[in-house]
């Protein structure tokens, strides 16, 4: 269904009517802005169902808070509200997306982007953080994740038990996840790495 053509002045009038409880005004506003709001959510998430859910949540919030919300520019409000909901969703999903699998998938996405400056900054931060790990932990991490060596082989090379190697990897991963995850979440959103 084609959105109803209304201008900014009409948005203000509709919001005033919604504040007074007009379901009809809400439906008109929803009809007009749903498509753009959905596009905004979908381009960040690349998931139709999640995008629809977020748009629904934002419009539900507008209806539920109609008496106290003061919206002066609805398109700008929707953009910010959707972006914030996407950030919260990504933060919740960080446990679902294996940390290093996502990092492995990002370079291909970034090569297609107009500007890979964020990816370069991420790699610089990643390398700098790796260099702050204790020397033995750093070596174990690099052997496992950069050279693809199994923990058993690393243990044999370094004269350590396999359990020690695994513990060192877990500690390294925890430090990297805590320090780099906010930046990684931003990259995921910008480059559409969420499937």
UniProtKB/TrEMBL annotation:
GO terms for biological process: DNA-templated transcription initiation. Residues 126-176 form the RNA polymerase sigma factor 70 region 4 type domain. Signal peptide: none annotated. It comes from the Bacteria. This is Sigma-70 family RNA polymerase sigma factor. Residues 29-94 form the RNA polymerase sigma-70 region domain. Belongs to the sigma-70 factor family. ECF subfamily. Keywords: Sigma factor, Transcription, Transcription regulation. NCBIfam families: sigma70-ECF. GO terms for molecular function: DNA binding; sigma factor activity. It comes from Mucilaginibacter rubeus.
């Amino acid at each position: 269904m084609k959105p109803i053509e209304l201008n900014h002045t009409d948005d203000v009038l509709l919001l005033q009517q919604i504040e007074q409880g007009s379901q009809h005004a809400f439906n008109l506003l929803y009809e007009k802005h749903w498509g753009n709001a959905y596009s905004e959510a979908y381009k960040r998430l690349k998931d139709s169902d999640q995008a629809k859910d977020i748009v629904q949540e934002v419009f539900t919030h507008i209806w539920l808070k109609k008496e106290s919300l003061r919206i002066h520019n609805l398109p700008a409000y929707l953009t910010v509200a959707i972006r914030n909901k996407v950030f919260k969703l990504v933060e919740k999903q960080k446990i679902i997306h294996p940390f290093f699998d996502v990092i492995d998938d990002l370079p291909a996405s970034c090569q297609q982007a107009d500007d890979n400056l964020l990816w370069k900054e991420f790699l610089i931060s990643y390398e700098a953080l790796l260099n702050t790990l204790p020397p033995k932990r750093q070596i174990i991490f690099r052997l496992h994740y950069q050279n693809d060596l199994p923990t058993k082989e690393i243990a044999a090379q370094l004269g350590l038990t396999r359990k020690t190697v695994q513990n060192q990897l877990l500690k390294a991963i925890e430090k990297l996840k805590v320090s780099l995850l906010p930046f990684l979440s931003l990259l995921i959103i910008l480059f559409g790495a969420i499937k």
